[in-house]
Amino acid sequence: MKALVQDEATRLTARVDKEQLEKMASVVLGGALLTLGLQRRSLGGTVMALASSGLLYRGLRGLRQLTSSPRDRREEGARTETPSVQHAITIGKPADELYRLWREPGTLAQVMSHFAELSTTSAEYTHWRVSGPLGQDLEWDTRIEEERAGELLRWESVEGALLPNQGLVSFRPAPGNWGTEVTLHLDFQPPGGALGEAVMTRLLAVPDLLVNRALRRFKSLAETGEIPTTERNPSARQGAHLH
Amino acid sequence: MRALCWNGINDLRVENVPDPEIVNPRDVILKVTMSTTCGSDLHFIDGYIPTMREGDVIGHEFMGEVVEVGHEVKKVKKGDRVVVPSFIVCGNCWYCQHDLYSLCDNTNPKPEVQQATFGQPTAGIYGYTHAFGGYAGGHAQYVRVPHADNDCFLVPDGLKDEQVLFLSDAAPTGYMGAEFCNIHPGDTIAVWGAGGVGLMAMQSAYLLGAERVIAIDRFPERLQLAREKAGAETIDYTQVDSVVEVLREMTGGRGPDACIDAVGMEAHGMGLEYAYDRAKQALHLHTDRGEALRQAILACRKGGTLSILGVYGVMDKFPLGSIMNKGLTVRTAQQHGQKYVPRLLEHVQRGELDPSYLVTHRFPLEDAPRGYEMFKKKEDGCVRSVFIP
Ligand SMILES: [Zn+2]
Ligand SMILES: [Zn+2]
């Protein structure tokens, strides 16, 4: 269970540009490092943030881990700091339209393809696969637990997932002519022990990045019909067409 | 194809790279006919802008002929001769619909880099670091242009490449800087920096109705261009005790109505002025950028406008008190090229603007490293090198 994510974003962060980013950041902030995508919110902070949104709060009531006490979670062997991450983005389309696009077969696979391979097995079930460089895959199925057309969609991994997780996307009209505020929340409960450590550092070190990029990709798809990419981008690097 | 690649600090080479392909349905492929150097490239060439990767194809100011068209492209056709602004924009997002094109939300495939640094990401740029998307640049035989219907501008027949090449960046940036000044009849506009952008800003100020334009620089050949091509009065700042005082005297004690800072333009990307103190020696900066902006603030008349085209990251001793007490309006942006290219093309067609004098040196693409060297060192009065693949 070495490296579970080898998407471009992670490579950019972890391998090549992290050093440069740090250099840049340390120049900018005189050492106060801005590490890309590594700010992890505390559970308390997340709950506070969520509680401020009635809609999200309603949606999240079903999320078992979040409503259980920290002690319960410790007893279950989970980390006290559940890697959960949330981002919001404003998209210049009506909520109904965005909700329909999200539900369209293929959309989620396209939007998440920087991080996971998704296949829709039925209207409620989605299969997720995150592949690593050593051929080790992490796979799970999610089932839609709650859907409110034009408002929100909540899903959970089914029983037995190695990495239990849950997600919520909500759509809320934005002020003026801005369209819709879309919030995506992902919540993982890594198992304890060495495996948990590996999952945490390799996969969940950058959930911020994953969620942020997924939302941006969804926005671009909704607003322009395509997702920006540097796929097959000419360069003089080895295997130049692989970015 | 052949392309100019960044391989490390001060290591540019023309190399074989794979041809670009149509990847998204709104892409076109351009056969590049001419491209040009930009001062902003010097910062990553010198290694002071991060997020470059070895092998990156550079160049963000170019034009060419459309040779391949994606299936969702509606307006642009094979065979069209077009000029392309350096920022890639979608045309659909809130920012694009408000003419704030360089702020486009949908063209930077690696938004998290800027999000971490600036708070929100801007649009992508060709050949200009992975923070700006990591797109391959235009110093190449071919280049992929996404969202072609918004980003390709048809060149009218009868205009030469060098007349329209600078509509990709220097001209719209300068024009935008002049537009920021909200020029009224009788206004005097002072412009710091007589490079490509500064010269375009001077000419644009006249096009927008300025009475007088005053250029501040120290290179004799650039001051000469400012006088002869842009019709400006000039100040060699190395020859006067105080630029601020000279400007005050030239304007009856009022100060210029608006001041344009086109000095830091070389840094129009990630704005490596945040590395200013450390970098300035290594970068052979020819002027104290912070000083130019301070001069502009002090010189500007009360209630006037400060138009900043140069980029400043962290600046110590920034005279905010002077801006506040004098009630200055500060306007700044990366170029919103797509807004200005159509009207600039009209000016060029009518003979009111001819940026071709910026081309001081021409090279085949194979000699591009030499072209950058001359440009960087301002050898032989080099204002801009252009490359012909
Ligand atoms: Zn430029
Ligand atoms: Zn846009």
TrEMBL record, chain B:
Residues 196-267 form the Alcohol dehydrogenase-like C-terminal domain. It comes from the Bacteria. Residues 25-156 form the Alcohol dehydrogenase-like N-terminal domain. InterPro entries: ADH-like_C (IPR013149), ADH-like_N (IPR013154), ADH_Zn_CS (IPR002328), GroES-like_sf (IPR011032), NAD(P)-bd_dom_sf (IPR036291). Keywords: Metal-binding, Oxidoreductase, Zinc. Its cofactor is Zn(2+). The keyword Metal-binding applies. The keyword Membrane does not apply. It holds the Pfam family ADH_zinc_N. GO terms for molecular function: oxidoreductase activity; zinc ion binding. Belongs to the zinc-containing alcohol dehydrogenase family. PANTHER family: DEHYDROGENASE, ZINC-CONTAINING, PUTATIVE (AFU_ORTHOLOGUE AFUA_2G02810)-RELATED (PTHR42813:SF2), ZINC-TYPE ALCOHOL DEHYDROGENASE-LIKE (PTHR42813). This is Threonine dehydrogenase.
